[in-house]
Amino acid sequence: EIVMTQSPATLSVSPGERATLSCRASQSVSSNLAWYQQKPGQAPRLLIYDASTRATGIPARFSGSGSGTEFTLTISSLQSEDFAVYFCQQYNNWPPYTFGQGTRLEIK
Amino acid sequence: QVQLQESGPGLVKPSQTLSLTCTVSGGSISSGDYYWSWIRQSPGKGLEWIGYIYYSGSTHYNPSLKSRVSISVDTSKNQFSLKLSSVTAADTAVYYCARSQYQLLVIEHWFDPWGQGTLVTVSS
User: Fold this and answer.
1) Whole-angstrom distance, CA of residue A4 vs CA of residue A100
2) Cα(A87)–Cα(B59) distance, rounded to whole angstroms?
3) Is the dihedral of CA A56, A46, B66, B14 positive or negative?
4) Which of A72, A76, A87, A93 suits B11 as a labelling partner, its CA being 20 to 30 A distant?
5) Which residues does chain B have within 8 Å of residue A6's beta carbon, measured at their own beta carbons?
6) Which residues does B contribute to its contact with A (CB < 8 Å)?
């Protein structure tokens, strides 16, 4: 089973600034990686798939990069609605699909 | 726009079987264009994929849960269901149903959308 590790656990950033979140896989997952956003009391929402493709309706300020074992989610200019928890998910080696433990993005 | 809604008991006793149903609206399970998954989220284990089903009844399960899990589909009701047997406190979680697209014989292995989730607590 591939283990996904996200860092940092909590990231404090001011509105309008850039946020960079990391996700590392225990072995290569090629570009088979997705990112999700989860707000309190809500289900996760798909942001990015295939490491860098934005899902339908996702603003351009969200971008994904990386391949192999190292991945990054960048939010270019943080809006108030972006403060949430973010998860990565690999789908290169399955079953099972596996998720990272999440990065909490909080207002500085 | 498709919506998924989980339903079922919020409290299950240890050693019993957890049973949940996901009702799909705004689209047909029988279209064959999607796979339908169960995913759970707990403070201790984070997000954990449980398994998925295709409208034909074909399934894939998480190996760590395979001995206790059964997912079934009822196309007449546009629903799919989860059964998890011999539950313990470790199975306490928010349970989500979610969809993955199936195009040109290829599964798109990400989940979109998800249901709102339902909390299941295992306790006597």
Assistant:
1) 5
2) 25
3) negative
4) A87
5) none
6) 46-49, 51, 60-64, 96, 98, 108-117
> What's the start-to-end Cα distance of chain A, in Å?
36
Task: Please count the other Cβ atoms lying within 10 Å of the Cβ belonging to residue B122.
Answer: 19
Residue B77 neighbours by CB under 8 Å, 6+ apart: B23
Distance CA B44, CA A101 (A): 10
CB contacts, 8 Å: A94 with chain B: 60, 109
Cα separation of B100 and A32, whole Å?
14
Question: Once rounded to an integer, what is the mean pLDDT over residues A57-73?
Answer: 98
- For residue A39, what are its two tokens? 């707000």
**Which residue type does A22 have?**
S
Q: Which tokens in the block code for residue B121?
A: 């607590």
- Written as one string, the DSSP assignment of A11-50 is EEE-TTS-EEEEEEESS--TT-EEEEEE-TTS--EEEEET
How far apart (Å, rounded) are the C-alpha atoms in residues B90 and B8? Answer: 18
Chain segment B58-115, per-residue pLDDT in tens: 999 999 999 999 999 999 999 999 999 999 999 999 999 999 998 888 888 999 999 9
Give the span between the Cα atoms of A94 and B83, in whole angstroms. 21
Parallel/antiparallel/unpaired status of strands B118-122 and B11-12: parallel
For residue A93, pLDDT beyond 90: yes
Shortest CA distance from A99: residue in chain B: B47
A91 to chain B, closest Cα gap in Å: 6
Q: Which residues of A46-69 are buried (b: 16+ CB within 10 A; e: fewer)?
A: bbbbbbbebbeebeeebbbebeeb
